[in-house]
Amino acid sequence: MTDSAKARRLTSRDVAARAGVSQSIVSFYFTGKRPVSKAARARIERAVQELDYRPNRVAQSLRTQRTGQVAVFIPYISNPLYAAYAAGVELALAEAGYLTVIFSNRAVPAQIDDYFHTVADSRVDGLILFPFEDDVERVEMLRARGVPVSLVDRTIPLSPDGPPVDSVVVDNEGAVRTAVGHLLDRGHRTVGLITSSNPIYGASRVAGYKKAYAERGLTPPDSALKLGGGRVGDGFAMTTELLREIPALSALVVTMNMPTLGALEALHAANIGIPDQLSFIGFDTDDDTHHLPSQVAAIRYPAVRLGRAAADLLVERLRDGSGGPARKTQMGADLFLGSSIAPPPDGD
Question: The pTM is what?
Fold first, then answer.
Protein backbone atom coordinates (compact mmCIF):
# COMPACT_ATOMS: atom_id res chain seq x y z
CA MET A 1 0.00 0.00 0.00
CA THR A 2 1.33 3.47 -0.86
CA ASP A 3 1.92 6.13 1.81
CA SER A 4 -0.82 8.29 0.28
CA ALA A 5 -3.28 5.41 0.52
CA LYS A 6 -2.35 4.87 4.16
CA ALA A 7 -2.95 8.57 4.91
CA ARG A 8 -6.57 8.45 3.77
CA ARG A 9 -9.44 6.02 4.02
CA LEU A 10 -9.31 3.40 1.31
CA THR A 11 -12.23 3.25 -1.10
CA SER A 12 -13.56 0.84 -3.67
CA ARG A 13 -11.57 2.79 -6.28
CA ASP A 14 -8.34 1.58 -4.64
CA VAL A 15 -9.61 -2.01 -4.69
CA ALA A 16 -10.59 -1.68 -8.36
CA ALA A 17 -7.19 -0.26 -9.29
CA ARG A 18 -5.33 -3.01 -7.44
CA ALA A 19 -7.57 -5.76 -8.86
CA GLY A 20 -7.46 -4.40 -12.40
CA VAL A 21 -11.25 -4.27 -12.72
CA SER A 22 -13.78 -1.46 -12.97
CA GLN A 23 -15.21 0.18 -9.86
CA SER A 24 -18.67 -1.01 -10.86
CA ILE A 25 -17.47 -4.64 -10.76
CA VAL A 26 -16.14 -4.06 -7.24
CA SER A 27 -19.49 -2.53 -6.31
CA PHE A 28 -21.36 -5.56 -7.69
CA TYR A 29 -19.04 -7.84 -5.69
CA PHE A 30 -19.86 -6.12 -2.38
CA THR A 31 -23.55 -5.42 -2.97
CA GLY A 32 -24.45 -8.62 -4.78
CA LYS A 33 -26.62 -6.68 -7.23
CA ARG A 34 -25.14 -8.51 -10.21
CA PRO A 35 -23.10 -11.69 -10.66
CA VAL A 36 -19.31 -11.35 -10.73
CA SER A 37 -17.14 -13.85 -12.62
CA LYS A 38 -14.95 -16.21 -10.62
CA ALA A 39 -11.81 -14.66 -12.10
CA ALA A 40 -12.83 -11.12 -11.19
CA ARG A 41 -13.99 -12.27 -7.74
CA ALA A 42 -10.59 -13.87 -7.08
CA ARG A 43 -8.73 -10.67 -8.12
CA ILE A 44 -10.98 -8.52 -5.93
CA GLU A 45 -10.57 -10.80 -2.92
CA ARG A 46 -6.81 -10.76 -3.38
CA ALA A 47 -6.82 -6.95 -3.61
CA VAL A 48 -9.01 -6.67 -0.51
CA GLN A 49 -6.58 -8.84 1.43
CA GLU A 50 -3.48 -7.02 0.19
CA LEU A 51 -4.95 -3.58 0.95
CA ASP A 52 -6.59 -4.71 4.20
CA TYR A 53 -9.70 -2.99 2.85
CA ARG A 54 -12.86 -2.67 4.93
CA PRO A 55 -15.95 -1.35 3.17
CA ASN A 56 -17.87 1.53 4.75
CA ARG A 57 -21.04 -0.37 5.61
CA VAL A 58 -23.00 2.73 6.64
CA ALA A 59 -22.39 4.38 3.27
CA GLN A 60 -23.12 1.11 1.52
CA SER A 61 -26.41 0.75 3.35
CA LEU A 62 -27.53 4.26 2.42
CA ARG A 63 -26.60 3.70 -1.21
CA THR A 64 -27.92 0.16 -1.70
CA GLN A 65 -30.67 -0.04 0.94
CA ARG A 66 -28.90 -3.12 2.26
CA THR A 67 -27.09 -3.62 5.55
CA GLY A 68 -24.63 -6.35 4.64
CA GLN A 69 -25.93 -8.29 7.63
CA VAL A 70 -27.95 -11.50 7.89
CA ALA A 71 -29.83 -12.64 10.99
CA VAL A 72 -29.59 -16.22 12.24
CA PHE A 73 -32.22 -17.34 14.72
CA ILE A 74 -31.28 -20.49 16.60
CA PRO A 75 -33.30 -21.89 19.51
CA TYR A 76 -30.57 -22.16 22.16
CA ILE A 77 -26.95 -21.13 21.66
CA SER A 78 -26.03 -23.26 24.70
CA ASN A 79 -26.85 -26.42 22.71
CA PRO A 80 -23.66 -27.55 20.90
CA LEU A 81 -25.72 -28.78 17.94
CA TYR A 82 -27.25 -25.34 17.33
CA ALA A 83 -23.87 -23.71 17.90
CA ALA A 84 -22.44 -25.93 15.15
CA TYR A 85 -25.27 -24.87 12.82
CA ALA A 86 -24.50 -21.23 13.56
CA ALA A 87 -20.78 -21.78 12.93
CA GLY A 88 -21.53 -23.17 9.48
CA VAL A 89 -23.80 -20.24 8.68
CA GLU A 90 -21.26 -17.69 9.85
CA LEU A 91 -18.44 -19.23 7.83
CA ALA A 92 -20.45 -19.16 4.61
CA LEU A 93 -21.77 -15.64 5.18
CA ALA A 94 -18.30 -14.30 5.94
CA GLU A 95 -16.97 -15.79 2.71
CA ALA A 96 -19.77 -13.98 0.88
CA GLY A 97 -19.02 -10.66 2.60
CA TYR A 98 -21.91 -10.63 5.08
CA LEU A 99 -21.86 -10.15 8.83
CA THR A 100 -23.86 -12.54 11.01
CA VAL A 101 -26.30 -11.35 13.67
CA ILE A 102 -27.30 -14.21 16.00
CA PHE A 103 -30.59 -14.27 17.90
CA SER A 104 -31.02 -17.07 20.43
CA ASN A 105 -33.81 -17.42 22.97
CA ARG A 106 -36.95 -19.50 22.49
CA ALA A 107 -37.84 -19.26 26.17
CA VAL A 108 -39.37 -15.74 26.06
CA PRO A 109 -42.22 -15.45 23.49
CA ALA A 110 -42.23 -11.63 23.53
CA GLN A 111 -38.53 -11.60 22.74
CA ILE A 112 -39.09 -13.92 19.78
CA ASP A 113 -41.58 -11.43 18.35
CA ASP A 114 -39.07 -8.62 18.85
CA TYR A 115 -36.47 -10.57 16.90
CA PHE A 116 -38.80 -11.08 13.96
CA HIS A 117 -39.87 -7.44 13.95
CA THR A 118 -36.22 -6.38 13.93
CA VAL A 119 -35.75 -8.45 10.78
CA ALA A 120 -39.00 -7.13 9.29
CA ASP A 121 -37.87 -3.53 9.84
CA SER A 122 -35.03 -4.17 7.35
CA ARG A 123 -32.27 -3.94 9.92
CA VAL A 124 -30.82 -7.03 8.25
CA ASP A 125 -30.94 -8.28 4.66
CA GLY A 126 -32.38 -11.71 5.34
CA LEU A 127 -33.02 -14.43 7.89
CA ILE A 128 -31.80 -18.00 8.39
CA LEU A 129 -34.22 -19.75 10.71
CA PHE A 130 -34.56 -23.02 12.62
CA PRO A 131 -38.36 -22.98 12.58
CA PHE A 132 -40.94 -24.12 15.10
CA GLU A 133 -44.67 -24.60 14.55
CA ASP A 134 -45.53 -21.20 16.01
CA ASP A 135 -43.21 -19.42 13.54
CA VAL A 136 -45.58 -19.81 10.58
CA GLU A 137 -47.30 -16.43 11.01
CA ARG A 138 -44.00 -14.72 11.72
CA VAL A 139 -42.40 -16.08 8.55
CA GLU A 140 -45.48 -15.12 6.53
CA MET A 141 -45.07 -11.56 7.86
CA LEU A 142 -41.49 -11.47 6.59
CA ARG A 143 -42.54 -12.86 3.20
CA ALA A 144 -45.19 -10.15 2.92
CA ARG A 145 -42.47 -7.54 3.48
CA GLY A 146 -40.14 -9.11 0.94
CA VAL A 147 -37.51 -10.32 3.42
CA PRO A 148 -35.65 -13.41 2.09
CA VAL A 149 -35.82 -16.39 4.46
CA SER A 150 -33.92 -19.67 4.44
CA LEU A 151 -35.01 -22.56 6.70
CA VAL A 152 -32.59 -25.02 8.30
CA ASP A 153 -33.13 -28.54 9.65
CA ARG A 154 -36.90 -28.60 9.10
CA THR A 155 -39.70 -26.94 7.19
CA ILE A 156 -43.05 -25.45 8.21
CA PRO A 157 -46.33 -25.28 6.28
CA LEU A 158 -46.30 -21.98 4.40
CA SER A 159 -48.73 -20.51 1.89
CA PRO A 160 -48.01 -21.50 -1.73
CA ASP A 161 -48.37 -17.81 -2.61
CA GLY A 162 -45.70 -15.23 -1.96
CA PRO A 163 -41.91 -15.14 -2.28
CA PRO A 164 -40.07 -18.50 -2.26
CA VAL A 165 -38.57 -19.81 0.98
CA ASP A 166 -35.59 -22.14 0.51
CA SER A 167 -34.75 -24.91 2.97
CA VAL A 168 -31.99 -27.35 3.86
CA VAL A 169 -33.07 -30.45 5.77
CA VAL A 170 -31.82 -33.86 6.85
CA ASP A 171 -33.37 -37.20 5.98
CA ASN A 172 -34.50 -37.82 9.56
CA GLU A 173 -36.66 -40.77 8.62
CA GLY A 174 -33.85 -42.47 6.73
CA ALA A 175 -31.34 -41.85 9.50
CA VAL A 176 -33.50 -43.50 12.18
CA ARG A 177 -34.56 -46.31 9.85
CA THR A 178 -30.90 -47.15 9.24
CA ALA A 179 -30.00 -47.04 12.94
CA VAL A 180 -32.94 -49.16 14.12
CA GLY A 181 -32.52 -51.52 11.17
CA HIS A 182 -28.90 -52.12 12.13
CA LEU A 183 -29.97 -53.16 15.63
CA LEU A 184 -32.73 -55.41 14.32
CA ASP A 185 -30.26 -57.08 11.98
CA ARG A 186 -28.00 -57.77 14.97
CA GLY A 187 -30.86 -59.73 16.55
CA HIS A 188 -32.53 -57.12 18.74
CA ARG A 189 -36.32 -57.11 18.84
CA THR A 190 -37.03 -54.81 21.79
CA VAL A 191 -35.56 -51.50 20.63
CA GLY A 192 -36.59 -48.30 22.39
CA LEU A 193 -36.69 -44.89 20.70
CA ILE A 194 -36.37 -41.49 22.35
CA THR A 195 -37.15 -38.58 20.07
CA SER A 196 -38.62 -35.09 19.99
CA SER A 197 -42.23 -34.30 20.76
CA ASN A 198 -41.96 -31.55 18.13
CA PRO A 199 -43.90 -33.03 15.17
CA ILE A 200 -41.95 -30.97 12.62
CA TYR A 201 -39.13 -33.47 12.79
CA GLY A 202 -40.09 -35.91 15.54
CA ALA A 203 -42.81 -37.47 13.38
CA SER A 204 -40.40 -38.41 10.60
CA ARG A 205 -38.07 -40.06 13.10
CA VAL A 206 -40.93 -42.13 14.51
CA ALA A 207 -41.85 -43.08 10.95
CA GLY A 208 -38.29 -44.29 10.35
CA TYR A 209 -38.43 -46.41 13.51
CA LYS A 210 -41.68 -48.07 12.49
CA LYS A 211 -40.52 -48.55 8.90
CA ALA A 212 -37.39 -50.41 10.05
CA TYR A 213 -39.58 -52.92 11.87
CA ALA A 214 -42.11 -53.17 9.03
CA GLU A 215 -39.42 -53.81 6.39
CA ARG A 216 -38.41 -56.91 8.35
CA GLY A 217 -41.94 -58.13 8.98
CA LEU A 218 -41.69 -57.23 12.67
CA THR A 219 -43.91 -55.30 15.07
CA PRO A 220 -42.44 -52.63 17.40
CA PRO A 221 -42.85 -53.38 21.11
CA ASP A 222 -45.61 -51.56 22.98
CA SER A 223 -44.57 -48.43 24.93
CA ALA A 224 -41.10 -48.41 23.36
CA LEU A 225 -41.52 -44.87 22.01
CA LYS A 226 -40.83 -41.86 24.20
CA LEU A 227 -41.43 -38.36 22.87
CA GLY A 228 -40.25 -35.37 24.87
CA GLY A 229 -38.09 -32.29 25.22
CA GLY A 230 -34.55 -31.66 24.11
CA ARG A 231 -32.69 -31.20 27.39
CA VAL A 232 -30.37 -33.51 29.31
CA GLY A 233 -32.97 -34.00 32.03
CA ASP A 234 -35.57 -35.04 29.46
CA GLY A 235 -33.30 -37.80 28.20
CA PHE A 236 -32.66 -38.99 31.75
CA ALA A 237 -36.38 -39.10 32.58
CA MET A 238 -37.46 -40.85 29.37
CA THR A 239 -34.74 -43.46 29.66
CA THR A 240 -35.65 -44.15 33.27
CA GLU A 241 -39.29 -44.63 32.24
CA LEU A 242 -38.34 -47.05 29.45
CA LEU A 243 -36.22 -49.14 31.79
CA ARG A 244 -39.07 -49.31 34.28
CA GLU A 245 -41.81 -50.03 31.74
CA ILE A 246 -39.87 -52.49 29.52
CA PRO A 247 -37.53 -54.65 31.62
CA ALA A 248 -36.65 -56.66 28.49
CA LEU A 249 -35.36 -53.59 26.62
CA SER A 250 -32.20 -54.70 24.80
CA ALA A 251 -31.35 -51.61 22.73
CA LEU A 252 -32.00 -47.88 22.76
CA VAL A 253 -31.80 -45.20 20.06
CA VAL A 254 -31.83 -41.53 21.09
CA THR A 255 -32.31 -39.00 18.29
CA MET A 256 -31.47 -35.74 20.10
CA ASN A 257 -28.01 -34.68 21.24
CA MET A 258 -28.64 -33.34 24.76
CA PRO A 259 -31.07 -36.14 25.70
CA THR A 260 -28.37 -38.56 24.55
CA LEU A 261 -26.22 -37.35 27.45
CA GLY A 262 -29.15 -37.71 29.83
CA ALA A 263 -29.86 -41.24 28.58
CA LEU A 264 -26.26 -42.28 29.21
CA GLU A 265 -26.48 -40.83 32.74
CA ALA A 266 -29.70 -42.78 33.39
CA LEU A 267 -28.15 -46.04 32.18
CA HIS A 268 -25.13 -45.45 34.39
CA ALA A 269 -27.36 -44.67 37.38
CA ALA A 270 -29.29 -47.91 36.78
CA ASN A 271 -26.03 -49.90 36.53
CA ILE A 272 -26.89 -50.97 32.97
CA GLY A 273 -23.74 -52.06 31.13
CA ILE A 274 -23.22 -50.93 27.52
CA PRO A 275 -23.22 -53.00 25.34
CA ASP A 276 -23.24 -56.13 27.54
CA GLN A 277 -26.75 -55.48 28.86
CA LEU A 278 -28.06 -52.90 26.40
CA SER A 279 -26.91 -51.68 23.00
CA PHE A 280 -26.96 -47.92 22.53
CA ILE A 281 -27.06 -45.47 19.59
CA GLY A 282 -27.03 -41.77 20.39
CA PHE A 283 -27.06 -38.52 18.44
CA ASP A 284 -24.12 -36.23 17.68
CA THR A 285 -22.64 -33.93 15.04
CA ASP A 286 -20.34 -35.17 12.28
CA ASP A 287 -17.56 -32.60 12.69
CA ASP A 288 -15.00 -31.53 15.29
CA THR A 289 -17.77 -30.23 17.58
CA HIS A 290 -19.07 -33.70 18.47
CA HIS A 291 -19.12 -34.44 22.19
CA LEU A 292 -19.77 -38.16 22.56
CA PRO A 293 -16.91 -40.55 23.37
CA SER A 294 -15.62 -42.28 20.25
CA GLN A 295 -16.84 -45.67 21.45
CA VAL A 296 -20.48 -44.57 21.48
CA ALA A 297 -22.38 -45.37 18.29
CA ALA A 298 -24.33 -42.38 17.00
CA ILE A 299 -26.38 -40.84 14.25
CA ARG A 300 -24.03 -38.06 13.23
CA TYR A 301 -25.82 -34.96 12.03
CA PRO A 302 -24.18 -32.70 9.41
CA ALA A 303 -24.80 -29.52 11.41
CA VAL A 304 -22.01 -27.32 10.03
CA ARG A 305 -22.74 -28.40 6.45
CA LEU A 306 -26.43 -27.67 6.95
CA GLY A 307 -25.66 -24.16 8.15
CA ARG A 308 -23.31 -23.48 5.25
CA ALA A 309 -25.82 -24.76 2.68
CA ALA A 310 -28.65 -22.63 4.11
CA ALA A 311 -26.44 -19.55 4.03
CA ASP A 312 -25.38 -20.26 0.45
CA LEU A 313 -29.02 -20.47 -0.66
CA LEU A 314 -29.86 -17.17 1.03
CA VAL A 315 -26.82 -15.39 -0.44
CA GLU A 316 -27.82 -16.57 -3.91
CA ARG A 317 -31.28 -15.08 -3.40
CA LEU A 318 -29.80 -11.81 -2.18
CA ARG A 319 -27.34 -11.52 -5.04
CA ASP A 320 -29.48 -12.45 -8.01
CA GLY A 321 -32.85 -11.32 -6.69
CA SER A 322 -34.24 -14.60 -7.97
CA GLY A 323 -37.97 -15.09 -7.72
CA GLY A 324 -37.72 -18.65 -8.93
CA PRO A 325 -39.34 -21.58 -7.17
CA ALA A 326 -38.39 -22.53 -3.63
CA ARG A 327 -35.40 -24.87 -3.41
CA LYS A 328 -35.13 -27.72 -0.94
CA THR A 329 -31.84 -29.51 -0.29
CA GLN A 330 -31.80 -32.78 1.66
CA MET A 331 -28.71 -34.23 3.31
CA GLY A 332 -28.12 -37.62 4.86
CA ALA A 333 -26.93 -38.32 8.39
CA ASP A 334 -24.21 -40.94 8.83
CA LEU A 335 -24.48 -43.82 11.28
CA PHE A 336 -21.23 -44.08 13.22
CA LEU A 337 -20.78 -47.60 14.56
CA GLY A 338 -18.89 -47.49 17.82
CA SER A 339 -18.42 -50.27 20.35
CA SER A 340 -21.72 -49.59 22.12
CA ILE A 341 -23.57 -52.12 19.94
CA ALA A 342 -23.62 -55.90 20.44
CA PRO A 343 -26.07 -58.75 19.90
CA PRO A 344 -28.82 -58.96 22.55
CA PRO A 345 -27.60 -60.60 25.77
CA ASP A 346 -30.18 -63.40 25.81
CA GLY A 347 -31.25 -63.54 22.17
CA ASP A 348 -33.91 -60.90 22.95
Answer: 0.79
